Amino acid sequence: MNVGPMMVELAYTPPSNVTGPLNQVLGYLAWLVTAAGVAGLMIVGTRMALALKTGDAEEHLRAYLIVLGACVIAACAGPLVEFVGLDFWNTSK
To answer: Under a CB-based contact definition with an 8 Å cutoff, are residues 44 and 69 in contact?
Structure first.
């Protein structure tokens, strides 16, 4: 009984000359998101300190929660996509 050669379906991997620059751009974006989060927290803290000094009773918790929520979303985006298994470049399926 001759079954013939077994054909193994291999997953497509993009060439390294594409993924190298893409990983570099994604690294830069990750650093920019981190810097934006730190800057956002510093801006909200500065506004809170100025409002406290002038005697204004403003609500700053909402601004802090918005900035922290954006930081959490930005930090979890990559691992969440990897966990779900969304590999858009895999065209062999």
So the answer is: no
Cα–Cα distance for residue pair 23/21, rounded to 1 Å: 5
Taking the C-alpha atoms of residue 62 and residue 68, their distance in angstroms, rounded to an integer, is 10
Give per-residue pLDDT as tens, 12-67.
676 777 777 777 887 788 888 889 989 988 998 898 888 888 887 677 888 888 88
Q: How far, in Å, are 22, 29, 73 from residue 70 at the CA level?
A: 23, 14, 5
Sign of dihedral through CA atoms 63, 65, 66, 67? positive
The amino acid present at 77, given as its one-letter code, is A
Residue 38 in tokens: 């730190």
CB-CB contact of 64 with 43 (8 Å): no
Q: Is the pTM higher than 0.85?
A: no
DSSP state letters, 5-37: PPPPPPPP---HHHHHHHHHHHHHHHHHHHHHH
